[in-house]
Amino acid sequence: MPRAFITGITGQDGQHLAEFLHGRGYDVYGMIKGQNNPRASKLQEEMPFVELISGDLADLPSLVAALQQAQPDEVYNLGAISFVALSFSQAELTANITGLGVLRMLEAIRMVGGTRDNPIRFYQASSSEMFGEVRETPQTELTPFHPRSPYGCAKVFGHDIVVNYRESYGLHASSGILFNHEGPRRGIEFVTRKVTNAAARISLGLQHELVMGNLDSKRDWGYAGDYVKGMWLMLQQDEPDDYVLATGETHSIEELVVRAFGEVGIDDWQKYVRQDPKFFRPAEVDLLIGDASKAKEKLGWEPEVDFPALVKMMVENDLALEKAKAGL
Ligand code: NAP
Q1: Which long-range CB contacts under 8 A does 202-207 form with residues at least 24 apart?
Q2: Beta bridge partners of 140
Q3: Is 116 within a domain?
Q4: 63 C-alpha to center of ligand 1: Å?
Q5: Centre of ligand 1 from the C-alpha of residue 107, in Å
Q6: Number of structural domains, the chain?
Q7: CA spacing 20 to 30 A to 9: which of 16, 41, 73, 198?
């Protein structure tokens, strides 16, 4: 059986990827950080097939030990400080985990067996936030980077060091430049989930207001379940490379709000939504829209869930969760 090692296993993508790989007959190992991580037991309940190994992207020896234990064929580096807003207040931590963590993972692979004779294949979770103040629209693998947050800057370092290690040491290392992807497992701090959860709670009378930042920003939103398949496809290619995964459609945050509230039968959403400058980013990313033609052509990858279906899925999930929590 092929063996996969995933960092960020407790995150949205880690869980989707673990399920996907398990379904394909992989032995799945997930790296868990901390001495008493509260997300570990929940993960083990939901996915008992994942073998958890302790480690931290800030600690190279722990990465080496984890790889020695897992002996993986494929490594997926999804672990990161991934919330852009937090990266502004904890920029050094973000640089260390989201940026330098990639370098440590690559070094660990070189030490444990990422040579031409024994190639561990590596996937890096790069991000559309690297494009930031976009130089062209839509963005492709060749669009220059202009990150607008410490998170975006750290991802650019991670991306570049993957390219450098691939070229310098012949590692089978690929990066997916993924545009936003969401789903019921998205953390509540992220804007899509914040909106779908608020729409559900407001419709149930459990919440009265939704306080938002910039409603005009535009994003290219897909479904996480579609995107993890793309990650896996990248590692099945003979040659490593970089690929944009995106839907090619862009929607404003206001459109997201209108649609989510519409799902729960609220048309006068303005009554409930207030904007507060405290939720605006110090530097904004106004328009992200990706061109995934290369992934379509070379990987045969295409997103299956569209924006309306994604919002509906997330609102329905939040309605069920909130009803159960409130005993309704
Ligand atoms: P997520 O839900 O925020 O998950 C982040 C994961 O990183 C969590 O499992 C977290 O573990 C782990 N982590 C944090 N600090 C760590 C450390 N020091 N050592 C090891 N692991 C650590 O993120 P996601 O949405 O699944 O995204 C997965 C990856 O794709 C991230 O790298 C993200 O930046 C990138 N990405 C995401 C999107 C998107 O739209 N979702 C788009 C482009 C790129 P704990 O639970 O223990 O804190």
Answers
A1: 202/261, 202/264, 202/266, 202/272, 203/264, 203/265, 203/266, 203/319, 204/319, 204/322, 204/323, 204/326, 204/328, 206/322, 206/326
A2: none
A3: yes
A4: 16
A5: 20
A6: 2
A7: 198
CA-closest candidate to residue 76, choices 122, 120, 107: 122
Residue nearest to atom 9 of ligand 1 (CA): 8
The H-or-E segment that residue 147 falls in is none
Atom 11, ligand 1: residue with shortest CA distance: 8
Task: Name the residue with the closest Cα to ligand 1, atom 33.
Answer: 82
Q: pTM of the prediction?
A: 0.96
d(CA 255, CA 221): 12
> What does the block give as tokens for 170?
């012949």
Q: Is 168 a catalytic residue?
A: no
258 and 197 share a domain? yes
The answer to whether residues 165 and 254 belong to one domain is: no
Distance (Å, rounded) from C-alpha 2 to C-alpha 72? 8
Q: Are residues 149 and 283 in the same domain?
A: no
Known catalytic membership, residue 128: no
- Counting ligand 1 atoms within 8 A of each CB, the residue from 13, 31, 220 with the most, and so the one to mutate, is 13
Pocket of ligand 1 (CB under 6 A): 7-14, 33, 37, 39, 56-58, 78-82, 97, 125, 127, 178, 180-181, 187
pLDDT in tens, the chain (328 residues): 999 999 999 999 999 999 999 999 999 999 999 999 999 999 999 999 999 999 999 999 999 999 999 999 999 999 999 999 999 999 999 999 999 999 999 999 999 985 456 589 999 999 999 999 999 999 999 999 999 999 999 999 999 999 999 999 999 999 999 999 999 999 999 999 999 999 999 999 999 999 999 999 999 999 999 999 999 999 999 999 999 999 999 999 999 999 999 999 999 999 999 999 888 888 777 789 999 999 999 999 999 999 999 999 999 999 999 999 999 8
User: Where in the sequence is the domain holding 317, given as residue range(s)?
Assistant: 187-219+250-287+305-326
DSSP assignment of 254-275, as one string? HHHHHHHHHHTT---GGGTEEE
In degrees rounded to 5, what are phi and psi of residue 171? -70, 145
